[in-house]
Write a structure and sequence with these properties.
- With 273 residues, this protein is α/β, with parallel strands linked by helices.
- 44% of the residues lie in helices and 22% in strands.
- It has a seven-stranded mixed sheet, sandwiched between helices. It has a three-stranded antiparallel sheet with strand order 7-9-8.
- Helix 1 packs antiparallel against helix 8 and helix 6 (153-165) runs antiparallel to helix 10.
- The longest helix has 27 residues, at 6-32.
- The radius of gyration is 18 Å and the shape is globular.
- The chain starts with 5 loop residues before the first helix and ends with a strand.
- The chain binds S-adenosylmethionine (SAM).
- The site of S-adenosylmethionine has 20 residues, from helix 1 and helix 3.
Length: 273
C-alpha cells in the first residue's frame, strides 16, 4: 500500500493543467510533438483508423493522426487545454474526459495512444485498463514517457538543482513516481498484467531545441504541474540559485545560437489480444 491520496493528486494535476494550458504548447510542444510519427507508426495509424488520443493537450498527436486520414478523437480533462487544441486544430473532434474512466464503449477504437500523459496520472494502472477496454480485439496501444532523469537532461538538471539549492520536500499531494514507466521491465510487466500482448519498449532520441538558456527554467516553472509547483514553493533566494544552476546545466549543449538538449523518451507499444 502507498500513502498516496489519488483523489487529491488527481485534483492537483487537473488544476495545474488548467493553469499551464496557455503556456504548455509554446514551452514543450516542439519537443513532445517529435514523438508523433513513431507513436502513430507503433499503432499503425492510417486512413480510416479509429483512434483515441488520450491526454491530448494541445492536440499535436491527434492532428498528426488526422493528417494520416485517421478518424481521431482527442481527449483531455483540462477544458483550457481543449480550448487550445480546438483553436490550433479546428477540424478535429476533442472531448473533455478522464483517462482513468473513459466515457466510450468497449471495443470502440482500433488504436489508443497517450503522449507524455501516463506519468501525470493519479491512477496510471486504471488508465491502462481503460485503454485496453476501449480497444477492439487486435487493436493497438502505445504511450511515451520521459527516459530516466540521468538521460532526459532537462529533468536531471532541474531535479539536481532543486536538491542542491532548494528543497524537494514541499507540501504537495503525493503522486505516483514520475519515472515509473521509464523502466522497460516495469512497463512490460504492467502492460502484461493489464492483458496486453506483444509488448515492445524502445527509446526515442528526442532533442529539445531552445533559444535561450533560461527557456528550460521558464518551461519547468510555467509549462507543467508537479515540477512547477515544487519551483513555486522555493524561497526567492533558492529559486534564483536554481535558475543559475539550470543555466549552467544547459550551457554545454549550446549549438550555434541555440541549445540542443538531449531528451530521450521511452515508447511502449502493445496489442489487445
Ligand atoms: C504533458 S501534457 C501532454 C500533452 C500532449 N499529449 C503532448 O504530447 O504534448 C499532459 C496532458 O495530460 C492531461 N491529463 C492529465 N491527467 C489526465 C487525466 N486523468 N485525464 C485526461 N487528461 C489528463 C493534461 O491535462 C495535459 O493536457
Amino acid at each position: 500500500m502507498t500513502g498516496i491520496d489519488s483523489g487529491a493528486f488527481h485534483d492537483f494535476e487537473q488544476a495545474g493543467w488548467e493553469r499551464a494550458a496557455g503556456f504548455y504548447g509554446d514551452a514543450f510542444g516542439a519537443l513532445t510533438a517529435q514523438a508523433a510519427q513513431p507513436l502513430l507508426d507503433a499503432v499503425g495509424a492510417a486512413s480510416g483508423t479509429r483512434m483515441l488520443d488520450v491526454a491530448t493537450g494541445p492536440g499535436f498527436i491527434a492532428a498528426a493522426a488526422a493528417k494520416r486520414g485517421a478518424s481521431v478523437v482527442g481527449l483531455d480533462f483540462s477544458a483550457a487545454m481543449l480550448a487550445e487544441a480546438a483553436r490550433l486544430h479546428p477540424g478535429i473532434a476533442f472531448r473533455e474526459g478522464d483517462a482513468e474512466a473513459l466515457a466510450f464503449g468497449d471495443a470502440s477504437f482500433d488504436a489508443v495512444v497517450m503522449n507524455f500523459g501516463l506519468l501525470h496520472l493519479a491512477r496510471p494502472d486504471a488508465a491502462l485498463a481503460e485503454a485496453h477496454r476501449v480497444l477492439r480485439p487486435g487493436g493497438r496501444y502505445a504511450f511515451t514517457v520521459w527516459a530516466a532523469p540521468e538521460r532526459a537532461v532537462a529533468f536531471g538538471v532541474t531535479l539536481s538543482a532543486v536538491e542542491q539549492f532548494g528543497t524537494a520536500n514541499v507540501p504537495l499531494p503525493e503522486g505516483p513516481p514520475f519515472f515509473r514507466f521509464s523502466d522497460a521491465a516495469e512497463t512490460a510487466r504492467t502492460l502484461a498484467s493489464v492483458g496486453f500482448t506483444g509488448v515492445a519498449v524502445r527509446e526515442l532520441p528526442l532533442t529539445w531545441r531552445v533559444v535561450s538558456a533560461d527557456a528550460v527554467f521558464d518551461a519547468m516553472s510555467r509549462g507543467g504541474v508537479r515540477t512547477a509547483a515544487v519551483l513555486r514553493a522555493q524561497t526567492p533566494e533558492a529559486l534564483a540559485a536554481i535558475r543559475d544552476a539550470l543555466r549552467r546545466g544547459v550551457e554545454g549543449y549550446a549549438a550555434g545560437g541555440s541549445y540542443e538538449i538531449p531528451m530521450p523518451a521511452v515508447l511502449a507499444s502493445c496489442r489487445r489480444p
